[in-house]
Amino acid sequence: MSESITLTGMVLLSVPSGDYDRRVVLLTKERGKITAFARGARRQGSSLLGATLPFCFGQFRLFEGRTAYTLAGAQIDQYFSALKADLDGSLYGFYFMELAEYYGRENLDASMMLNLLYVSLKALENPRLWNRLVRYVYEIKLMQINGEFPFSAAEDESISETARYTISFILNTPLQKLYTFTVTQEVLGELAGIQDRIRVTTLDRKMKSLEMLQGLQETNERL
Question: Whole domain around residue 62: which residue ranges?
Fold first, then answer.
């Protein structure tokens, strides 16, 4: 058997496999998006029971196979428990992870994507920040990292100067300072309008988690 490797990453997706196993998709700093199987992870008392759930961030010990990895152990540093306890926040989080899974590629350095995902989930846990603002900041930055955000949006004369400045700030600010501002509802609406158009023309599939999030928001508005 080959030697194990340890990768830093986050569980983006976790689904049952067989009677007791789990198949997980990890976004890792060193090797990008990978698929791993956790044998016996659904058995009561398994050391991998809690480490193979979405949002888990930490170090994962794996063995590399021909088509997938085998997860042998994990040291979880962050479970994002507060986020998972909030329905609205958790739906935003699942959407963020689905977008990361969409852009993730195997055997490519994903350190910036992973760091962005981490700080964005932490921002969702911040009660002083609007989740919608965090969402559009995350979308813009993620598209920028992957070379798909049109820089001309920061010069769009159809939106206000404040909105253009906000887009420019997002594009030019390092991740550790990304969520240090707020905007008015009017500017947030402008960001939503322009980013929704960009997302529809850029992504080639619908995000199931976004449809669930939008459905919840429409239900809340009717109540």
Answer: 5-78
Calpha distance 134→149 (Å, rounded): 17
Report the alpha-carbon distance of residue 159 to residue 191 in Å, rounded: 9
Q: pTM of the full predicted structure? A: 0.95
Tell which residue, 204, 131, 140, 147, has the closest CA to residue 166. 140
Structure token pair of residue 89:
């926040």
How many residues are listed for the chain in this entry?
223
CA 155 and chain centroid, separation: 27
Answer for the pair 187, 168: CB distance below 8 angstroms, yes or no: no
Q: Which of 174, 88, 97 is nearest to 131 (CA)?
A: 88
Euclidean distance between CA atoms 8 and 118, whole angstroms:
12
Query: Do residues 44 and 151 share a domain?
Result: no
Here the CATH number for the domain that contains residue 210 is 1.20.1440
149 and 108 Cβ atoms separated by less than 8 Å: no
31-61 pLDDT tens trace: 999 999 999 999 999 999 999 999 999 999 9
Average pLDDT over residues 61-68: 92
Q: Is 102 left (phi over 0), alpha (psi -120 to 50) or beta?
A: alpha
128 shares a domain with 47 = no
Does 36 share its domain with 100?
Answer: no
Query: What's the N-to-C CA distance of the chain in angstroms?
Result: 58
| C-alpha–C-alpha distance, residues 207 and 57, integer Å | 22
d(CA 175, CA 20): 38
